[in-house]
Specification:
It is built from two helices and no strands. By secondary structure, it is an all-alpha fold. The longest helix has about 50 residues.
């Protein structure tokens, strides 16, 4: 995964927190609660979901890499060629 995949979720979450604080400070109508807060919640959930997904992708790629190392070690030990996957 690229660096951008790890950078944008915390930046978006920080932006959502900043917008929430600014909305509470400056907006006084009910539309803040009805329209703006649900949008901010969706954005925050998207950022948190991306962080969770990035962690899962990293764990999966680490598991695949470790399995490839184990397969290569077994191939060297037994003298058999690696199977193409």
């Amino acid at each position: 995964m690229t660096l951008v995949g790890w950078v944008w979720p915390p930046v978006l979450l920080g932006l959502v927190v900043w917008m929430f604080v600014q909305a509470r400070k400056h907006l006084r109508s009910r539309t803040r609660v009805w329209l703006l807060y649900p949008v901010l919640r969706v954005l925050a959930l998207a950022a948190l979901g991306r962080v969770y997904g990035a962690i899962l992708i990293e764990d999966e790629s680490a598991a695949v890499a470790s399995q490839a190392i184990l397969d290569a070690g077994e191939s060297v030990r037994t003298g058999t060629p690696l199977a193409d996957s």
